[in-house]
Amino acid sequence: MLHHVLFFRLRHDLSAGERQAAILRIKTSLEALEGKIDGLYRIFVGKCTEHVPWDCVLYSEMRDAGVLATYRVHPLHLSAAEYLRSVTAESGACDYLS
Fold it and tell me: What's the pLDDT score for residue 95?
């Protein structure tokens, strides 16, 4: 199984309300992918605690790297990614196998 993890830091110029709305929109748009891509077993987005330098995290479980390749070009993912780029200042990623 492939675990795909991303961390996002939102732009500093966003107000607290805009940050909260952005995290909710990110969560809603990415979690909508569950059940739409064969081999994508789970996908979660959550707000990070205040003790880490990131604002939100995506965690997903998928069958293999082929599913990740399909996920990356899926229209719903592309739409979510476009919005993510508009509100994030920085991101980090880690994929690992289990």
Answer: 98
